[in-house]
Structure formats: structure tokens, C-alpha cells
Amino acid sequence: MHQASNTPNDKASRAGSGAPAxxxxxxxxxxxxxxxxxxxxxxxxxxxxxxxxxxxxxFEAGVPLPGPLAILIRLYAIxxxxxxxxxx
Length: 88
What we know:
By secondary structure, this protein is mainly alpha-helical. It is 55% helix and 0% strand. The N and C termini lie far apart (52 Å). The chain is globular, with a radius of gyration of 18 Å. It has a domain at 26-86.
């Protein structure tokens, strides 16, 4: 049985394999910028994700997003998720 090795050459060959690069973390600044682009209040922006305005404010101030919420916001930001799909 052949086992895959983790030599630098193996990693380099996988790097060009078309696998997606890891996403950068969603920063508070990036979230504020997204909301600003939408020209929405905190209440309107965060409510589509089931988040209160006060919690949304904390996230925009730098409190880390829970993983599932971060995924939703990323999908929303790249247009793979919209208000209709979110039920907003």
C-alpha cells in the first residue's frame, strides 16, 4: 500500500492542483465595508442573518463571528446567497 508523503515537493505539486485557497478571515472592517456598500443600517443588514443589531455591532467592533455566521456572510458577500434564499 502506498502512503502519501508530506515532503515539500508533494505540497508544491498539490498547490497547483486547483484546490481552493483557504479563505482569509472576515475582519470587522470588511464586514463594516460590506454593510456600507449595501447602504444599510446595522439592524437591516444583520437581521437577514438572524442577528440582532446589538450583536451585529459587537461583530463590527471585532468580536469574532461564529463559524456558521461567517460562512453565511462570505456567501452573501460573493453573491452566492441572496435575500430571497435567506428568507429576508
